[in-house]
């Protein structure tokens, strides 16, 4: 019996030792990954000043998730906090005190928004640039035009406080930052006419990729707090909410505007502060695109 006890204790000790080594290695890899330099070839976009473009930029800022994280005034805010282990805050992007974008040149904005890369080449780890990589030059220019009009406000830098497990998984590549997901060689998206079309709906759906995945198959959101629910499956297949709950466009629009399911259940995590600002064309085109997807 004593032999088996000793062997059991030895096995437990070995397991603990292996886990400890894995944690140390994972944290070292995470530090290197966060400090890596990413070469991105990009160009500045024209920033318009006309009223129509400014209105478009404000609409994009409010409906595409920018205000959800940075706040309607752009001063930054905490958008996720779970006890002492998780705290995520977007930085101040106005011209006020503590701004993270002080000194940004026009090309730096494009690199950050489209590619998730800082001016010094390091990754912006909580910037969901995979959602914005396909913004057209016109829309990106309009968005930057609106940001430039935000009154200076005081705010701080980004906060990225994650549990040990998430940091280790990041180090081992199980959680990827946006810069690691994006194909940086793709040319900018060509302009797509706004309207009730599948093509326009696909363009709108780009903002869903960060949470629902590149194929919109849903699942656990990488790097999200542990108690966050999995993102719903939007693509065809078993468990798709489009097939079971949102065949009807009106039901889909009601969910976007109210934040509740057809059964009246409050939906968690979804950025309804932004989704609720969708105009009818964007919302219905998005539903049209999601309904058009084929299995496989």
User: Separation of termini?
Assistant: 56 Å
Radius of gyration: 21 Å
* Count of separate DSSP helical elements: 13
Strand order of the largest sheet: 1-2-3
Globally, the shape reads: globular
Helix content estimate:
40-55%
Overall pLDDT confidence: 91
Structural class: mainly alpha
Give the amount of beta strand, in percent: under 5%
Structure write-up:
The protein is mainly alpha-helical and 296 residues long. The chain has helices spanning 2-35, 51-63, 66-70, 106-115, 137-149, 164-171, 178-181, 198-204, 209-212, 241-244, 249-258, 272-275, 280-292, and strands at residues 78-82, 86-89, 159-161. Strands 1-2-3 form a three-stranded antiparallel β-sheet. It is globular, with a radius of gyration of 21 Å. The relative contact order is 0.13.
